[in-house]
Amino acid sequence: MPSDTTRPHAMTAEQYYASRPVLFAGAGVLFRNDDGHILLVKPTYEPRWVIPGGAMEPAETPRQTARREINEELGLAHEPGMLLCVDFVPAKPPTRLKPGIMYLFDGGRLSAIEKNAITLPADELTDHRFVEPDALTDYIGGLLLRRVHAGLAVCQSGIPVDLEDGYPTQRSV
């Protein structure tokens, strides 16, 4: 299989990269309060709650995406902490048309000043709340729930995990 520097001689760089799979990439941040409750936000565009985060722009790194999303969604200038997990998410048509790579960073514990300073963009988010880990299933499910649980475990162990569809791979168990 050719790398990006060893493509078939008959192909230009543009042709080679156009022949490669297109991936969706995004980054989220796991924030907690002093009681260990998880910060969730309520989007205007879907019924379920989510964690702060979003899609990566073409020129961004995952950490830059997390930083930008914290600022855009919460109105906070908060530096993301350690990488908790990387999750490869396979395509599952008809709802998930592209495979993706999702990064989850530790946001740490928000201070009282930061919690009071949260400002949501009205066109994107309608609400936010801190939810007990045991009650997360009332707000989020499936892939995101698995990723958040994996991230919480990493907050305890300090050892980042490699996920596939929200499940730890053999090497990260």
UniProtKB/TrEMBL annotation:
Report which superkingdom the organism of origin falls in.
Bacteria
- Keyword annotations from UniProtKB, A to Z: Hydrolase, Magnesium
Cofactor(s) annotated in UniProt: Mg(2+)
Domain (Nudix hydrolase) spans 22-161
Asked if the keyword Hydrolase belongs to this entry, the reply reads: yes
**Entries under InterPro entries matching the protein:** Nudix_hydrolase, NUDIX_hydrolase-like_dom_sf, NUDIX_hydrolase_CS, NUDIX_hydrolase_dom
Cross-referenced PROSITE patterns: NUDIX, NUDIX_BOX
As for family, the record states: Belongs to the Nudix hydrolase family.
Q: What is this protein called?
A: Nudix hydrolase domain-containing protein
Tell me what organism the protein belongs to. Actinomadura vinacea
